[in-house]
Automatic annotation (TrEMBL):
Pfam families: HATPase_c. This is histidine kinase. It comes from Erythrobacter neustonensis. The keyword Lipid metabolism does not apply. Transmembrane segments: none annotated. Its EC number is 2.7.13.3. Residues 186-412 form the Histidine kinase domain.
Length: 417
């Protein structure tokens, strides 16, 4: 709500003055200072809900521009901006001070009041040692208990710190992927725009090659033309998929999805490429009217794409000639389970519990031909999507003829209700 409705707006004579308070407007420089950590407290624009009320009678020096976009930035406006910013900053810093939090990056002599549990236990043990220095078996037993407690607490702290470090690394990578998504969106748009021109030039080139008098040269040119045609088709397949994915991502509205419709659309999108890779799809959705709990279509697509890219890498490593992928969907109680099977290498039993950990991968540097080399985040994202919609992701037991089975579950539309 803060990102959508937060910010300090301005009303003059009862009417809203744009653009103050819009998500993209930083008229109080709150985003600027928090982004550069001049302020360490939560004091961004979306942390506040409020407005400034002006009137032509009480504030005659504060006038709108002739275009009605903003106020004239005169001395009165600068005074208004300075006072509003001071008031908000004062309030936020006062809250931080009450909570014993550091308020500014340059704050000197700040000492956090937060104490590690192990420090508390060590202090109790030290006091106990000094006051019960020779108290017999009971005192010794209590000291041993305290030392054991201190060891357990320190181990727990180390585990928590390791998880926090891994979480920070994961979030940093997600931010990188999010920024890459913007570039990929532009790429998909540009590919779509260049498709017609490139196809037309390929047809023209084919006609020109047909007029080459040297048969041997013509044969070589036709071979290169065919390679170029295949590469272009592959590029258009990926570009089309990205374009369709981004168009569905534009809407933030959640809606229940037809599982069969999503799987059919996904397999059609990669049908040509899979045929070139000699991969046969087998789709088994029962009943066909299965619908998920409300979710983003792009999230289900990302799950299928992650399973597909991993399957391709596995089948390439296994060097199987008869490459097969089976996608199955069933209702299990309140959940829908989508299973993705392939006849590649499979996953060793000792690694099955780790494949959904962030940055864990057995295919670093391998290119699947669709999404490129992996980052070790694909299956972690699959797991996160499943958990956010009441489900799980796990390695299942493959059916006969297949070596690997990945299962993804979410609440069904009926289960969510």
């Amino acid at each position: 709500m803060g990102r959508e409705f937060g910010g300090v707006r301005i009303y003059r004579n009862g009417f809203r003055v744009q653009p103050y308070g819009e998500p993209s407007d930083d008229w109080l420089a709150l985003a600027y200072d928090t982004g550069r950590r001049n302020l360490l407290v939560p004091a961004n624009n979306f942390n506040f809900f409020g407005h400034v009320v002006l009137s032509a009678v009480s504030n005659p020096l504060l006038e709108e521009t002739s275009s009605r976009e903003g106020l004239i930035e005169n001395e009165a406006f600068e005074e208004l901006r300075s006072f509003t910013r001071w008031a908000l900053e004062w309030a936020a810093l006062r809250v931080a001070a009450t909570r014993k939090r550091k308020q500014r990056a340059g704050e000197k002599g700040f000492t956090s009041t937060r104490v590690r549990p192990s420090t508390v236990v060590d202090e109790i043990l030290r006091r106990h040692d000094s006051t019960h220095n020779a108290t017999g078996a009971e005192g010794t037993s209590r000291q041993d208990d305290l030392r054991q407690l201190a060891q357990v607490v320190r181990q727990y702290e180390a585990d928590v710190e390791a998880k926090i470090a891994a979480s920070i690394e994961y979030e940093e990578m997600l931010r990188i992927l999010a920024s890459l998504g913007l570039s990929i969106s532009v790429f998909g748009h540009e590919v779509k725009g260049a498709e017609s021109a490139l196809l037309a030039n390929l047809l023209l080139l084919e006609d020109i090659i047909g007029e080459v008098p040297d048969n041997r040269l013509q044969h070589d040119l036709r071979s290169q033309h065919a390679d170029l045609q295949r590469s272009a088709e592959r590029l258009f397949d990926i570009g089309g998929y990205i374009g369709a994915l981004m168009s569905r991502t534009e809407s933030r509205e959640l809606r229940d999805l037809s599982v069969k419709g999503a799987i059919d659309r996904f397999t059609r999108q990669f049908e040509n490429y899979m045929a070139k890779q000699r991969v046969i799809f087998d789709i088994d959705v029962e009943p066909e009217e299965l619908r998920t709990t409300p979710m983003h279509a792009s999230e289900l697509d990302s799950v299928l794409l992650n399973f597909l890219t991993n399957a391709i890498k596995s089948m390439k490593r296994a060097k199987v000639d008869d490459r097969r992928i089976r996608i199955e969907a069933r209702r299990h109680g309140r959940h829908i389970v989508v299973a993705f099977e392939d006849n590649g290498m499979g996953i060793p039993e000792d690694l099955q519990d780790r494949v959904f950990d962030p940055f864990f991968t057995t295919t670093m540097g391998e290119d699947d031909g669709v999404a490129g080399p992996g980052t070790g985040l694909g299956l972690k994202i699959v797991s996160d999507v499943a958990e956010s919609y009441g489900g799980t992701a796990n390695v299942g037991i493959p059916t006969e003829g297949y070596a690997c089975r990945m299962e993804f579950s979410v609440l069904s539309a009926e289960g969510a209700a």
